[in-house]
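Table 4 source record.
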Amino acid sequence: MLRQVPSPDPVPTPKQVIALFGPTGVGKTDVALAVAQRLRDRGERPVAVSADALQVYRGLEILTGTATRSEQEGLEHRLISFLPVGATFSVAQYARMAHAEIDTLIEEGATPIVVGGTGLYLRAALAELELRPPPPPGVRERLMAEAARRGPEALHAELRERAPEAAATIDPHDRHRVVRALELEAQGALTTPPAAEENRLWTHDTRHPTRLIALTMERDALHARIDARVDAMVRAGVLAEVQAADAAGASETARKALGFDQLLRGDVEAMKTRTRRYARRQITWLRKLPDVELVDLTGREARDVAAELVG
C-alpha cells in the first residue's frame, strides 16, 4: 500500500507594489480609488502610501491636494497629514517611514499602492536612496536670506557663472533649486545638474516587485485641469489655509508646497503658471523612467483606466 506524502505548502507569490505617478492635477487619486475598488472586488486589501513631499504636513491639505476624508474612506492612506507645519522633514526620513509602511503591508498580505507626484519621494519609497551630502550648518539659511533680499534671479546669475550646465536646467525664479545647486557647487558635489538628479537616482532595483504606472494627459487638457483645480482650492479656502500656516511658523520645507509663496501674495494666476510649469517637468521626468507603463488619461474616466490596468 502506497503511503500518501503530504504536499509541501505552496510558496507564496511575492506581493507586487503598484506605483501610480503623474503630474499634479492629472487625477492620480481618482485612478487610485478606482484601482483599489477593483482590487477589493477580487479579494485583495489595497492601502495607499503617499509619495508626496508636502502631503506629510497637517494644515496644508487643500494646497497639497491631500486625499479628502471621503476619499480616505474609499481607500486608506498612509503618510499623510502627520507633521505640524512648523516641522522640517527630509527625504531620508520619509524613506525610512515609507519602507516600514510598505514592508508591513506586504507582510500582512495587503497590496500597497504608492501614489505621488514627487519623483524623488517615489524613488525613496520604492528603492534605496543614494543622497547627496547635506550643506554645512548655516549655508542654506544664508543663501535663502540672500535670495529673499536680492531675488533668486541674482543667485541664478552667480550659478550661471560657476556652473553654466546646471544653471541651464533651472528656472531662475525657483529659489529652492537655485539655492540647492549653489550648495552643491560650493561642496564640489555638483557633478550632475539638479534637474537630472531624479533621473540619476532612479534604478531598476526596487525593494519589492513593482509595477510602475505613469499617468499622463494631453497638455491643453492638463492645463485646463490645473487651472480648474486651483480655482477649486480657492473656493475651498486655500488662501486662509496658507495664511494660517504662515502665522503658525511654517518651516522652510513646508513652504516649498507648490503655490505657497504665490498665495501668500494673493497671486492666484502666478500659482497657476508655476503649477503648469512644474507639471511639464514632471511629465518629462516620468517618460524617461525605465520599465514604466505610460497611461494617457485624456478624455477617459478613472474607472475605465482601472479596468484596463487591473482587469
